[in-house]
Amino acid sequence: MFTNMLIRQTKDTFIRRFGNVGYITNQLTKHDLNFNETGADFLDIISREPKELDLIIDELLPLYNDISQEELKADFLDFALDLEKQGFIVTGNSVEELNSKEPSFNYQMENPKTTLYDFTNPDKNEITTESSELFYEEFHKEPRIFGLQIEVSSRCNERCIHCYIPNQKKDNGNDMPLEMILRVLDEAKDMGTLQVTLSGGELFLHKQIDVILRYARSNDFIISILSNLVLLTEKHIELLKEINPSIVQVSLYSMIAEEHDAITLVKGSFEKTKRNIERLVAANIPVQISCPVMKLNRKSYKDVLVYANKLRIKAQTDFIMMAQADHNTNNLAQRISINETAELLNDMLEYDRDYIGSTLNQEPKSRDIEKFKKMPVCGVGVDNICVTANGDYYPCAGWQGMVVGNANQQSLKDIWENSPELKQLRTITNGSFPQCIECDARDYCAMCLVRNYNENNGDMFKITKHFCDVALLNKKMVENYLKETK
Mean of the pLDDT values across residues 149-170? Predict the structure, then answer.
């Protein structure tokens, strides 16, 4: 009965192989699975184009000539039908049947992905604990670029008062040449990269953004987009529907127009951004709101959460802030104090479902203290990297004071494998910060190498006391909350 069965990935499913590990993830359901070498071989044979089951078995047979064709077919069929149950692939007897089974994102779904917790830096799909452990083991034996961020333009049409990118860079900005972007995307594809985040500056200022987005889709990346949406047009909306991004992340700072505009320093930006968020929702394009909290908007943050909840989209915040990439700390005048942070955390415990879910229910990172010491502080140099409009590569988007290579002079592979700076970063672990190992608040800490670096004139090992104070406060408030809700 399965002789003429057709099999293909869904449009939201992505498959990669990391050595002998096969990985499959779905940007719609936020589910993922990893497999041993046999499962990896089976995943390799599944594609976006429909394939007949018998032809798939013919392709696999040379790899498994010690078992019969019937046994191999039965094993693969069990594998495929299980993937179908979990929403990764579709099967059927005709292309029309496959297409009829294809799921699509919409805001009327019972649990749209825009309400789920998402590990961003917008552009990391949620991965299971099992997969996280696997990547920890695999990527530290052999670092791989899981996620790449490309700042397609350094120009920006806003001047946000808290931004870590100096205004001078925006004022004298330029667009990355199309040829360079396409080459970088090809190099990332050849290296097995899964996720690409496209940002700026403001990416919709790039006149060839349509070519860039379509090329990223043709290279089969999970695509995330960072934009203020001020320039969004109907043409862009049609383009986004075509390329099927995982998420579009936009900053909305307040539901009070004057407050939002006072942060962007662009009059009218609130109305344009809000209107275009709602246009994307109407078009069933997944949107996520970023709402960094600072002195100007700390009282109105919860109103952004309420607004996002009504639209069935996620809003997330960062209330610590980062100094500018040139080590200028003037923007930190907007950072909220510890007392103001306490007020904000009270609001978050009441209004922010993601904060409760991610902070209160997470497994302690340092339960196994010896393993914790060996773990990296973050993924810089291990599984992600960023390139900006002039071709400079940085460890991450905020770390623009440390150039690790340039796309005009080197391939991405050469930089990833040979950069002295990246090699140094790969040696830094939690154990490099003995004071953090001894700290009772280590599981509530948001300490970050680039925050250290930007705020302390290039010293990544000097921890700003504010980070420690926030971690201790976070621990105290979470523990009190748990006691009160028991």
Answer: 94
* Tens of pLDDT, residues 426-458: 999 999 999 999 998 988 887 899 999 999 999
CA distance 24 to 34: 6
Buried b (16+ CB within 10 A) or exposed e, 73-93: bebbbebbeebbeebbbbbbe
Q: Where are the beta strands (DSSP E) in 73-130?
A: 89-92
pLDDT, tens digit (0-9, with 9 covering 90-100), for 318-339: 888 999 999 999 999 999 999 9
Cis check for the bond before 22: say yes or no (omega within 30 of 0): no
> How many CA within 13 A on the CB side of residue 299?
3
d(CA 386, CA 176): 13
- Asked if 197 and 147 touch (Cβ cutoff 8 Å), the reply is yes
* Helices and strands of the chain, counted as H and E runs: 20, 15
Mean predicted lDDT score pLDDT of the chain: 90
Query: Is it the case that residue 125 has pLDDT exceeding 60?
Result: no
Q: Which two tokens stand for residue 233?
A: 């047009």
pTM surpassing 0.90? yes
| 121 preceded by a cis bond (ω within 30 of 0) | yes
Sign of CA pseudo-dihedral 254, 255, 260, 266 = positive
Residue 96: exposure state from Cβ atoms within 10 A (0-12, 13-18, ≥19): exposed
Q: Are 329 and 323 in contact (CB under 8 A)?
A: yes
Q: How many CB atoms lie within 10 A of CB 232?
A: 21
Classify 81 as helix, strand or coil.
helix
How far is residue 119's CA from residue 246's CA, in Å, rounded to a whole number?
12
From residue 190, how far is each of 42, 289, 379, 404 by CA, in Å? Answer: 20, 32, 20, 20
DSSP assignment of 187-203, as one string? HHHHTT--EEEEESS-G
**Tokens 């400079």 label which residue?**
392
* Angle separating helix axes 37-45 and 69-85, nearest 10 degrees: 80
Torsional sign, CA 339, 340, 346, 352: negative
Tokens of 102: 């294809």
**405 φψ region: left (φ > 0), alpha (ψ -120 to 50), beta (else):** left
Q: For residue 367, give the nearest of 443, 451, 465 by alpha carbon.
A: 443
| Distance from C-alpha of 261 to C-alpha of 161, rounded to nearest angstrom | 10
- 306 vs 351: CA distance, rounded Å: 8
